Amino acid sequence: MIRSKRSLRNSSKRSSRQLLGSCSGEILGEASFKLELLKEIYRADRRRRGREFGLVQLKFRSTTSEEFANSEAFLMCCKRLRITDSVGWYETRVAFLLPETDKDGTLAFANDITRLCIDAGFDVDSDVSMYPLDDD
């Protein structure tokens, strides 16, 4: 079905979170996630504005990342994602790739999902990385 420009324009008024709703609980494998990360580095290097993106990795102390990935808390974290964001395995951690997100936005996301995980009973910390690398 082909949509007219008018209906596309109206659908673009919804936020990307509304369009996604929540992730389906699918988590990218390590190779696929690293490919997404490399593609985002390439895109960021080509842009003049909106070059920043964030990577949030969750470190679990008392449980495994696999237990988290199969939990209701994981699905709740996915509800915070935009349609352009990705979640996948990065080494042995669950990681969230946040394109076109500045440091403040990435830190806010990391704090939100860390608190959500702690409230769900997980002993977790988050590591935040930014691209391009910042000196802070």
Write up what this structure looks like:
This protein is of the alpha+beta class and 136 residues long. It has 6 helices and 4 strands. The protein has helices at 5-11, 16-20, 30-46, 65-69, 72-78, 103-119, and strands at residues 53-60, 86-90, 93-99, 124-131. It is globular, with a radius of gyration of 16 Å. Residues 1-22 have low confidence and may be disordered.
- What percentage of amino acids are in beta strands? 15-25%
Class derived from helix and strand content: alpha+beta
Number of DSSP helices?
6
Q: Mind describing the biggest β-sheet?
A: 4 strands, antiparallel
Strands of the widest sheet, in order across it, are 2-3-1-4
Integer-rounded radius of gyration? 16 Å
Could you give the topology of this structure?
Elements: H1 5-11, H2 16-20, H3 30-46, E1 53-60, H4 65-69, H5 72-78, E2 86-90, E3 93-99, H6 103-119, E4 124-131
Antiparallel strand pairs: 1-3, 1-4, 2-3
Helix pairs in contact: 5-6
Task: Note the main attributes of this structure.
136 residues, alpha+beta, four-stranded antiparallel β-sheet, 6 helices, 43% helix, globular, disordered N terminus
